[in-house]
Amino acid sequence: MSVSTAEHRRRRRQLMELAGEGAIVIVPAAPERIRNNDAHYPYRQDSDLVYLTGFEEPESVLVLVPGRQAAESILFCRERDRAREQWDGPRLGPEQAPAALQVDDAFPIADIDDILPGLVEGRERVYYHFGRDSEFDLRVLGWINRVRAEVRRGARAPHEIIALGFLLHELRLFKSRGEVQLMRRAAQIAAEAHTRLLAICQPGMTEFEIEAEILHTFRRHRAVPAYEPIVAGGANACVLHYRANQCELKDGDLLLVDAGAEFACYASDITRTIPVNGRFSPEQRAIYQLVLDAQIAAIDQARPGRHWNDVHDTAVKTLTAGLIRLGLLKGSLAKNLKDERYKDFYMHKTGHWIGLDVHDVGDYRIDGQPRLIEPGMVMTVEPGLYISPDLKDVPARWRGIGVRIEDDVLVTRNGPEVLTADVVKDIDAIEAAMAAAAAARPPPLAPTSRAQGRMSPALLADLILVGHAFIIAFIVFALPLTWIGAWRTWAWVRRPWFRLTHLALIVFVVAQTWLDQLCPLTVWEAELRRAAGQADHGDQFIAHWLAELVFVEASLDVLAWVYTVFGLAVVLTLWWVPVRWRSG
């Protein structure tokens, strides 16, 4: 699933028409970045180059020269190199690029310093993003200066350098049908990840475990995080861009998760806030419902003909009125709005554009005025309330509550369409989903009546292992001694204890086989997990004792069956053969 090469070609044509003849457009790839020493960050292509070509290799440059007879669209890219491809993977190469990407021509990136000044010569305007890559900025200026140095010989150098975003970013603001399809898929993947959290979240887990579940879902669907996930339990939710994701989730706290998936370079952005134990407290419920009411009212403003600020203003009015109703703000609605007193609890805007970038390009104001919302735009709507623990003038029962609810909204001719609606956000739906998941989990092991309380997981495991060890010792040491004694002193055979001992061992072998079928190792694992109170996620204790049980079970099975083969024959011989025949 991706944008077609035909659509990329149409986009390049639109951009060249806007730039006009006499212009040259230069769009470089994103540079590779070093994480540490010689390890790179995962590579992500520049969004403008993706928009115009779909090409995701580094060390490449797209050049558009409107009106040029030989070739209007030219790609500079890496040459094929068998040795480097052995290390880094396949390259498209300039020979295959024109057919694969529908560009007019392609050259090796190593030749760009020789070719590009000739393309710049005779052009009046250069459209380029200055400030993104300082090294490439210097190269562009160097190409222009080389042309300027030839002015006395009749060369014509550009006299104007214009920010490329002035033209290109307005095109990117309006999403095509193919782009919307990719954004729907990104939204579905992110929604699945958030829905998964409703099933697993419980007290005792950690923020990084929740993050791991999110990343697992993303990668299962060939997606990556659109941004660093925010997983904030309790008062951490009051930190807008919380990044540590290290704390334990506590009973009675809320969990705020802001995580979006990027699929085929298109982003989604979802935030949900859920109760760690599956039930909202009265204060949490009040704050959450207020934020949800604000979001629903704000989403309704995301329709053609409304101004961009209408979405934010509606959310602010709803939140401020609710804060007054709850007693967290004093005075009239008009006074609180004028003085912006709500900013103690709500300090950010209600949304942003979203597309190839999670905070996508596009102007929010035109000629100083909020722009009109139009079909094809996609935005987030994300009101929130953050009652910091440091707000001492707020009653203690409210402090530390942080709630944000965020969805991606496509503006259509008929009004707003929520792309991320697959993940629930109503209070009753959240609690019902978490209750159903909790009911499906194995119940915790009931406390054992002991002098100091319940049996510990370690004691349970020790009892299991001691019992198995006793049986192994009986087989390994006791029985061979009885065999040796029986052969040396035949009178022992007639003694009842000897016969009963061997008969008991035969019964044990049969019982062991039956127990392995009725109660396999997975049952012991479940019991240990229940005893440890870790129904959904293991720890080092579980891994250690399971390894011990695997070893003991294997040893026991081998010894039991060895005795079955050899010991049973000996027992039957000693039991049935007359002593006088043996001694005669």
Task: Summarize the entry for a quick read.
The protein has 584 residues and is of the alpha+beta class. It has 18 helices and 21 strands.
Task: Describe the SSE topology.
Blueprint lengths: L4 H15 L3 E6 L5 E3 L2 E2 L6 H7 L7 E4 L8 E5 L4 H7 L4 H9 L3 E4 L3 H9 L4 E3 L6 H15 L11 E3 L2 H9 L3 H24 L6 H14 L3 E2 L4 E4 L20 E6 L1 E3 L2 E2 L2 E6 L6 H18 L8 H19 L6 H7 L25 E2 L2 E2 L7 E4 L2 E3 L15 E3 L2 E6 L2 E4 L8 H14 L16 H32 L7 H23 L2 H12 L7 H37 L2 H5 L1
Helix pairs in contact: 5-6, 8-9, 10-11, 14-17, 15-17, 16-17
Tell me what the structure shows.
This protein is globular. With 584 residues, the protein is an alpha+beta fold. Helix 14 runs parallel beside helix 17. The chain contains 18 helices and 21 strands. It starts with a helix and ends with a helix. Strand 2 and strand 3 form a beta hairpin. It is 47% helix and 13% strand. Strands 6-5-4-1-7-8 form a six-stranded mixed sheet, sandwiched between helices. A three-stranded antiparallel sheet has the order 9-12-13.
